[in-house]
Amino acid sequence: MSTDPTSQFAKPHIDARALLGLYDPADTTDWAPIRAAQVHAGGELALFLLATNVIGAALVTLILERDVPLWALACWGAVVAAIAVAVTFRRLAAKQRAQTAATLADVRDTVIEGVALAAVWSIPPLLFGLHADAGSALGLWIVLSVLMTASAVAMAALPLATLSFLAILGLAIAAMVLWVAGPVLAASVALFTALLMIGCFTRARALVLIRSGEIALAERDETVSLLLREVKQDETADWLWETDAARRVVRASPRFALSVGLDPAAINGKSLLEVLAGTTWESGKFAAGLRTLAEKLKAREAFRELVLPVHVAEQERWYEIAANPRYDEQGAFLGFRGVGADVTEQRASADKINRMARFDTLTGLPNRLYINEALAQAMADADKWGSRCAFMMIDLDRFKAVNDTLGHPIGDRLLGRVAERLATLVTDNEVIGRLGGDEFAVVVRDASDTQRLERLAQTIVDALARPYDLDHHTLYTGASVGVATGPRDGRTTEMLIRSADLALYRSKDAGGGRFHHYEPQLHVAAEERRVLEQALRKALAQNELHLNYQPVVDAGSGQLTGFEALVRWTHPELGAISPAKFIPLAEDARLIGPIGEWVLRSACAEAAAWPGETPIAVNVSPEQLLNPGFVAVVGSALANSGLSAHRLELEVTESVFLRDDTGAVKVLERILALGVRLSLDDFGTGYSSLGYLSRTRFTTIKIDRSFVIGASKKVPEAIAIIRAVVALAQSLGMATTAEGVETEEEHVMVQALGCTKVQGYYFGRPLPVDEARGLAQRAAQNREAA
Known about the structure:
The protein is an alpha/beta fold. 55% of the residues lie in helices and 16% in strands. It has 32 helices and 20 strands. Helix 4 runs antiparallel to helix 6 and helix 18 runs antiparallel to helix 19. The N terminus is likely disordered.
């Protein structure tokens, strides 16, 4: 391969078709600026061409005024002037538009101008000249020949237009001369036309060659200027360097000497590697870039963008160098010639950008990108050495409650404190980072010791469970951890992260504050969950959901006091699916909104058909209450069904009050304003704050079955809780419903403890709609009979 720096600027091959503007050649020549030069040159003589046409038309008129009617000459002259003016304006506009680049169409379309001019100038010899005398015909021939010559000069830069003009007009003149003077003079006209066409093409080719040479020189000058940075005179400018065949520095430039902190005279004759190595030359502890340079010099290979550290005045600088080997005419190696630049500042900026791209700005820990790279490297090392690595997913428990109650600034500071604790737990064997939100991760490079891995996971759980003191707040947040070991639990980073995520999900599902290892059945459960979610997304549209109604009775008399609507799902292939499975899935998949609305509307429509005033209770998810439009849904369900508002009771759980800032309480107040009643479900199983009981007007407090079971087993705490709830409800004017009563003993017990209503299998399982309707009718008849 040639090392001549000008070899890439070789003179382009001028294809005749490309010159005429007939096609774009497939070589490396950039024809856009060359065509721009053609268009520009055509525009330069546009006014000259206009003057030539006007003067020529005047001369022809004078010559033929005795042989041709004046009106005909005047009409023809006007057409000549109009076409000439139009061509002139087109040339000037194209010149302005194509300053640096022109398209193939810009050149090719000029043929219209040449044909138009040739057509109008062919009229005198073909129409007027055939009837003129010999003197007039000779004069016409002379004027047209001068016109052709002038046009060949003015239009030579655009050969396609010029050749079209010359060919058409030349044939017209030859035809006239043949008619008037015979074949000899006609042949002379044809020869003259051919010579003009050849001259025009040659001149056009010369213009293109000159322009292509100018472009090549400009590109060469620009490249050299960029290489040498001629405009830079400060000490950070690029510098040239040169070596002989023995890799010794020769003809060292002052700028090169300044860059390495040495005297120019002292550099000449020294090894280039010794000059660049500086103080590390004696110790032999070279940087990787310097070793790469030594290999390139030894192999006599060209190189570029080679970055290496250089110590100048006890300060580390970074230089980027490039060079080509030099050979004489006989091919003997002469050494290297190259250029260098100080890129210390650029490298510092790149390092800063790299750190920003790989480290979390809030905690200072590695971010998701860094963690993924570290895990990929750990898995590659484990595969290389036949060992094991591990990945831990960490998710903070109850962190959302901190954000919702105290705000994001406190939440961000808490994340910083969590990061500080985690950073103290890891060694060189681990990399810990933040994935985003309240999720953290740990890459364990060597996880051969299973017990050590488990101790680390438990240590993380214990450390993050300790309280945090922030702005006079004592915060308690735990952590759930999922652990996956590679390559057993995944042979790719994506698979291992997925396995750790499934293990984390199990830890969260078990209540948090613990760790779990990945197990294959977790993947089975996740796949089942995925299949169920896909099926659930279609269940509503395919009418797979239906409602059952569980009776609620008076604890003393056993008479029916209402029903609770319970949604059930029967899949055509999977069969009946437990609500314990699909309700949480609907909440996670954000499907609870449309499903809950369907349940509400269906229950209201059914209850409206029952006799009497039998009420209906419908469970409402906290996610539904986050939607301000839910009030309108309730109003619409009542209006469309005709159900009285006081017969509808919405059941909510305590968890809705954890997110007071979402406006759920305001939504409940607007629902109460409609006349709808509210029931507090599962009281005492969650967060157990009494404040919201005084802020929201509940009609009923429902006691969870877990307390009923505990009380039936004589557990003192369960009995005390039921008594406390009953007393609280009585003081606030609320009813109490004991859920899950399945035996007579449980019924007697909750009645003795003061519960006003009961619900459970002892009084009836959830009933299909027909049976519930019949039960409601019988209850209404019994009340009427009483």
